[in-house]
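Sample pair:
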Amino acid sequence: MTSPKKQGLLREASHQIIAGGSAGLVEILLMHPLDVVKTRFQIQRGTSDPHNYKSLADCFRTVFRNEGGMNQGFFTFEQYKKLLSLTGLPAGLALSVAGLGSGLTEALVVNPFEVVKVGLQANRDSFQVQPSTFAQARNIINADGFGLRGLNKGLTSTLGRHGVFNMIYFGFYFNVKDAIPASQDPTLEFLRKFAIGLASGTISSCVNIPFDVAKSRIQAPQPIPGEIKYRTCFQTMGLVYREEGYLALYKGLVPKIMRLGPGGAVMLLVYEYVSGWLNKNW
């Protein structure tokens, strides 16, 4: 028979998983097209690229016209937060470190899916010859296996992207939220949390985007078939900087902010409200 303590832990974990899953699902459904646009900007190599997009609107228009349109970290964050509460670290620092830990853990899990996703998003013939997700994964495994040249390529960049993002995202949100007094008015309280979540997602996106650009370059098809130009995270950052300039490390920033600014706020709000409802009613 399950003990009350174990039942309580299972109940709490299930609440975190359900709330986190709901938050992620809502954000993806609302914001995924912007992720496609962000990836396309990040893999184009300057004005000489034959697929260069002139603007954000041009990229949306081209993808929609030519290709037929576009369409976890909360649980691990909570576990790291509990563990770090036993270390004696200041509460604010512990939240940021918990965010970093959740980001690194999340990156290890999602990187193979990111490799498949970026490969699909980079396919400019998707309307005519778009492979399925499983077919894309099978092609990658057959060609390069499961390792750092295959289904796990770009792992260091993904670790940097998720680790830096979650460290700032969770650390900023929960520290600032606790520092600004809550409002008794439900509407004002919602707006308070939304504004803090929006700032969290925006700041995190601005800081971690060089890792995101490197990840996209490594995981997308290489410029010359059969020749690996973008090999590792920092080698790719250095190469992009030398060939295309400093601003190239911030390609895709606008669609990224458009996605993860409001999207980040939506995720945190859905997580908090669903988690609160579950704790009261289940």
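The CA atoms of residues 99 and 170 lie 5 Å apart.
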